[in-house]
Design brief:
The protein is 45% helix and 10% strand. It is of the alpha/beta class. The protein has two domains: 2-167 and 258-301, 3-Layer(aba) Sandwich (Rossmann fold), CATH 3.40.50.1010; 181-255, 5' to 3' exonuclease, C-terminal subdomain (DNA polymerase, domain 1), CATH 1.10.150.20. β3 (75-77) and β4 (82-83) form a beta hairpin. The protein is globular, with a radius of gyration of 21 Å. Pfam families: 5_3_exonuc, 5_3_exonuc_N. Keywords: DNA-binding, Exonuclease, Hydrolase, Nuclease.
Length: 303
């Protein structure tokens, strides 16, 4: 099981009131929400191996070099490539890392890459056991597959209780795409994503993008047909491709999740490590984390 950690703690931050603070006034709402969600995940899904995937670089240089607008609207400090994050969330991230470490949960990252790339790489490497990706980020829908082992996204954009499990079939049903994860990435290139600073192809929205990918089977086949002047590609689409040729050439590098990132992990095998209950209790007391840590300890130590 792969946790998209930043996605989960961002959602916890906005779901749990900021009035929850430590004895010295440090907000801990994201920590509490994150710990509680991880406890629920472990209790309900019983993963044999679990990795909390982290952002080593939230805005990787290779993506920015391809498309400079990538996540540009979220930059708080351009000189240091610092992400604009709520002031009350920033001090909570180290607490979350400490708690994961005390809980014996493996953490993994890759220098110069986002957590999405860590997830994509670990999912692609797995050849035997089913993989579940826990995230609130639809970008990871591109990772789903049935072979050589199943990869599913457990999407928690509306919270854990309203989670939906996405595989190739669900992807096809939801978006009208071919039942293969790469089709989602192809559609996303055409559609764009304003929240990530990706403009997409002029005049092509999600439904049109899905129809085109379904008709031609892949983005590359569509681009090749358009370049050949095929009448199967509507004239306005061919014109849009010519107008946005630079974006079309570079966007796949930005949109597609890396599957061969060099991973640095806190454990060699993703197997649960020793749960340091005393240390978890100390963190619980220091930061006033309440019952969320109780639930996490119970989930981790259940027979």
């Amino acid at each position: 099981m792969l946790l998209d950690s930043a996605s989960l703690y961002f959602r916890s931050f906005y779901a749990v009131p900021e009035s929850m603070t430590s004895p010295d006034g440090v907000p801990v709402n994201a920590v509490r929400g994150f710990a509680g969600m991880v406890a629920q995940i472990i209790t309900e899904r019983s993963p044999s191996r679990l990795v909390a995937c982290m952002d080593a670089d939230w805005r990787p240089a290779f993506r920015v070099a391809a498309i400079p607008s990538y996540k540009a609207q979220r930059v708080a400090d351009p000189a240091n490539n610092v992400e604009e994050v709520p002031d009350t969330l920033t001090p909570q991230v180290p607490i979350i890392v400490d708690l994961l470490d005390a809980a014996g949960i493996c953490m993994a990252e890759s220098a110069g890459h986002e957590a999405d790339d860590v997830i994509g790489t670990l999912a692609a490497r797995e050849k035997a056991d089913p993989v579940e990706i826990i995230t609130g980020d639809r970008d990871l829908f591109q990772c789903v597959r049935d072979e050589p082992t199943t990869v599913r996204v457990v999407y928690v954009g509306a919270g854990w209780r309203k989670k939906t499990v996405i595989g190739p079939v669900e992807l096809a049903e939801k978006y009208g795409l071919p039942p293969v994860g790469s089709a989602y990435a192809d559609m996303a290139v055409l559609r764009g994503d304003p929240s990530d600073g990706l403009p997409g192809i002029t005049g092509i929205g999600e439904k049109t993008a899905a129809r085109l990918i379904t008709r031609f089977g892949s983005l590359q086949a569509l681009v090749d047909a358009a370049a050949a002047g095929s009448s199967d590609v509507p004239l306005r689409v061919r014109q849009a491709f010519e107008h946005d040729a630079d974006y079309l050439a570079k966007a796949p590098l930005v949109v597609k999740v890396n599957e061969d990132a060099l991973i640095t992990a806190s454990c060699p095998d993703a197997l649960p490590g020793e749960v340091d209950v005393d240390r978890m209790r100390a963190l619980q007391e220091r930061w006033d984390l309440g019952s969320s840590v109780d639930r996490l300890i119970d989930a981790l130590t259940a027979p």
